């Protein structure tokens, strides 16, 4: 039985892609072909959004120069394992439109990230989203206008061996379980258990 099957069991029938997707930290330096990489953003493009505004934008880094620029705002802990990541994608979202403030911009960007992550899994890639970054430094370094919110940084690539990580991270390099579904759903009112 694989690590994923041991750690992840669905309570109700779903496609296995949801169980296979997790966030490893061990990356190979292997380059991601452009057509494969762009297919992830193609999947993200089809995520739902309020008024079809599609507030998400991605700033990617795949050259040595661009990855070095991104490393300048990645937090100390994440820098430990990010050195081999071949592609970074910073997901940002536009906070306003001609209609005014977009209250769902981050929610919609999260949907785009979800679509991207599932397509990556389908293509044999791994992704690891992180918020352990200096948001203001990222804004300055990448010239991001104030009308865009910075949501998260995503590492994209091929999975490496866990032994390539520092020993302190090797034990964490495994799929994680989820709490039972009934603990995430209330029925009718907050705090009211789901009745079956």
From TrEMBL:
**Superkingdom assignment:** Bacteria
| InterPro entries the record matches | Nitroreductase (IPR029479), Nitroreductase-like (IPR000415)
Q: What is this protein called?
A: NADH dehydrogenase
List UniProt keywords, sorted A-Z.
Answer: Oxidoreductase
Please name the GO terms that the record assigns under molecular function.
Answer: oxidoreductase activity
Q: Of which family is this protein a member?
A: Belongs to the nitroreductase family.
Organism field:
Aeribacillus pallidus
* Alphabetical list of Pfam families matching this protein: Nitroreductase (PF00881)
> Which residues are in the Nitroreductase domain?
20-74, 78-158
Q: Does the keyword Oxidoreductase apply?
A: yes
């Amino acid at each position: 039985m694989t690590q994923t099957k041991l750690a992840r069991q669905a309570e109700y029938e779903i496609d296995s892609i949801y169980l296979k997707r997790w966030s490893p930290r061990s990356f190979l330096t292997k380059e991601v072909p452009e057509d494969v990489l762009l297919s992830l953003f193609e999947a993200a493009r089809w995520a739902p959004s309020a008024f079809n505004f599609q507030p998400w934008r991605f700033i990617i880094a795949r050259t040595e120069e661009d990855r070095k620029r991104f490393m300048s705002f990645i937090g100390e802990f994440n820098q430990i394992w990010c050195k081999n990541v071949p592609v970074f994608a910073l997901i940002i979202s536009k906070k306003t439109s001609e209609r005014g403030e977009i209250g769902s911009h981050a929610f919609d960007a999260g949907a785009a990230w979800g679509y991207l992550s599932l397509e990556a899994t389908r293509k044999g890639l791994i992704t690891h989203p992180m918020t352990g970054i200096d948001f203001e430094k990222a804004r300055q370094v990448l010239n991001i206008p104030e009308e865009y919110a910075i949501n998260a940084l995503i590492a994209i690539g091929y999975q490496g061996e866990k032994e390539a990580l520092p020993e302190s991270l090797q034990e964490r390099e495994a799929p994680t379980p989820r709490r039972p579904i009934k603990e995430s759903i209330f029925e009718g009112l907050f705090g009211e258990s789901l009745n079956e």
